[in-house]
Amino acid sequence: MKPIDPTGPAAQSPAELPTDVLVVEDDTLIAMDAAETITSFGVASVRIARNVADALQMIAAHAPDFALLDVGLIREKSFAVAEQLERQKIPFAFVTGYSGPAGVPATFAHHPVLRKPYLRDALLETLRRWRDPV
Question: Is the CATH code 3.30.565.10 the one for domain 18-128?
Answer without folding.
Answer: no
